[in-house]
Amino acid sequence: MRTSVPARISGGVLGGLRVFGQTLELGAAAFLHLFRDIVALRHPWRDTVDQAWFVVTVTVVPAVLVSIPFGVIVSVQVGSLTNQIGATSIAGAAGGLGVIRQGAPIVSALLLGGAAGAAIAADLGARTIRDEIDALRTMGIDPVRRLVVPRLAAILIVAPFLCILVIFMGLASGYAINVAFQAGTPGSYISSFASFASVGDLVVALVKTQIFGVIVVIIACHRGLGATHGPRGVANAVNAAVVLGVVAAFTVNVVITQLVAMFMPQKLG
After folding, report:
1. Which residues contact 98 (CB under 8 A, 6 or more apart)?
2. Are 244 and 219 in contact (CB under 8 A)?
3. What does the alpha-carbon distance between residue 97 and residue 162 come to, in Å, rounded to a whole number?
4. Higher confidence at residue 192 or residue 117?
5. Backbone angles phi, psi at 131, to 5 degrees
6. In angstroms, rounded to a whole number, what is the distance separating the alpha carbons of residues 211 and 259?
7. What is the mean pLDDT of residues 51-69?
């Protein structure tokens, strides 16, 4: 018997809500275990360091390769616009704030989702189809506490440093383009940037990046632990982890941007 279209839609919605609830439950359990283990001095820091180093190895080089052209593009577009309206003195502020407020968190989310999230989903998915997760449960070991928590802690540690790296490379490349090719002066670029940028902008960028990292790692772990049907299931889990992680991070970014615009309006320093 063929299922009607409304039934398919309602089934898809209910399935999506079920998955969303399971992901939230996994995230809550991971944070609870993380807090308890740190307080009780039982957190596996060796595993966390190993996972943090792994995330660094798969994200640092792409971060540099992406942030440099990103800073160049922002500088070229902003410099062209400011030259047309005769406002070259604010080129540093416009380009720098664009990199800090939106560029660096978004680039970090893409890298964490595309590189780290994919690797985490592939690793946990391979463990799942080899029945290693069921073996851990049989031995009385919680897979969330043993596998998810170290990866969550590693993302919380690495994400801010990744954001700072992207900000530095983006600002440096934008500065070089403005001074070398757009007839800008170093003093004007730096002074305009210092007049508009604030510590609050950096804090917001770092907090956003950590939130994006948490979203990416929880979705990747959920998809990896739920992988089925052999290698094909692992590939589907990796694909879903990357797409859902990036889309969720972008959606949350829209909400955070609106809240920041409401409660932290831009002020001239």
Report:
1. 74, 78
2. yes
3. 17
4. 117
5. 65, 20
6. 15
7. 89
The amino acid present at 106, given as its one-letter code, is I
pLDDT band for position 215 (cuts 50, 70, 90): very high
Placement of tokens 């590939």 in the chain: 235
Closest CA to 213 of 90, 116, 83: 116
pLDDT of 17: 81
Residue 88 has pLDDT above 60, yes or no: yes
Percent of the chain having pLDDT more than 70?
91
44, 144 in Cβ contact below 8 A?
Answer: no
For the record, the structure tokens of 216 come out as 């990416």
pLDDT at 57 over 50: yes
Q: Which residues lie below 8 Å from residue 130, measured CB to CB, with a gap of 6+?
A: none
Give CA–CA dist 248/202, Å, rounded.
22
- Residues 194, 198: Cα–Cα separation, whole Å: 7
Q: Count of alpha carbons within 13 Å of 167, Cβ hemisphere only?
A: 21
pTM for this prediction: 0.88
DSSP character for 185? -
Residues 205 and 105 sit within 8 Å (Cβ to Cβ): yes
225: amino acid identity, one letter = L
